Amino acid sequence: MRSFKEQMKQDIKSTFMSFAEFSEVHKLNGKNKLVIIDENELNEREKRIRDEIKGEGLHKKQLLFYIEAEKCGPLPSPGNLLNFDGRDYIVTDAVNEDGIYSVSLEAKKS
Asked: What domains, with CATH codes, occur in the chain?
């Protein structure tokens, strides 16, 4: 019998990060990776910080995605650059959520 953690690890691979189910192929630092872009969570986070962005004169392009930790390598560090689909972003937050990385990115445009 599998432990809960073993079952969760299997579910990450077979369901959550499955191309047939949820994930899409995107380029991270020039390599094709299966990721899930989460626009709903991003919208919730943007609502919380909307007042901070007002008046800066800049539009902040933001992106939140999930990737299987084993397929990504080391957890990206906030402040580092990450190229996502040919565009450079700054990592603003990255968390290991039990084998799945939640990574927030930001690019500034004037």
From this structure: 4-109 (2.40.10.210)
Q: Which of 12-16, 57-61, 68-72, 92-96 has the highest mean pLDDT?
A: 92-96
Task: Kindly state the tokens that stand for 76.
Answer: 């990206």
Task: Taking residues 12-23, report their average pLDDT.
Answer: 63
Across the range 25-54, mean pLDDT stands at: 73
Cα 74 to Cα 61: distance, rounded to the nearest angstrom:
24
Query: Is the pTM above the cut of 0.85?
Result: no
| Phi, psi of 45, rounded to the nearest 5 degrees | -65, -40
Q: Which of 56, 79, 71 is nearest to 101 (CA)?
A: 71
Amino acid (one-letter) located at 53: I
Q: Note whether 53 and 109 are within 8 A (CB).
A: no
The torsion defined by the Cα of 46, 55, 107 and 16, in degrees rounded to 10, comes to 0
- Cα 82–chain centre separation: 11
